Amino acid sequence: MWTEFRAFLVKTNVLALAIAFVLGVAFAAVVGSLVKDVIMPPVGMLLGRVDFSNLYLNLSGGSYPSLAEAQKAGAATINYGLFINALITFVIVAFVVFLIAKALIKPGPAEKSCPYCAMTIPASATRCAHCTSQLAAP
Known about the structure:
mainly alpha; two-stranded antiparallel sheet
């Protein structure tokens, strides 16, 4: 059973997936720090010394000087500043993943549809692999 399980792990690239997951989590932590510690302070300064991580709506009716104090008191809050930080982090991570995917994933060969059987075939094909019809030269 152990041999079968090991073969499953190797055959299905579970190890590669696990490594990618660990790297992704580490990358997300780095980007989170970039947003929180590098990007948001200057943005907050430009917007009148706003600390986005401290922006919240108090639903409990009490008055608290900061989000930390409201949470410590157990007040119900909507933490929209933390949501803005998370949204910016997501956009940066998504953009970097897009750039990495664009660099690593090369487009496949051009394709066309066979005029006789409508199956997809390589654009340079002169005979359909599905219905064996002779096609015009590209």
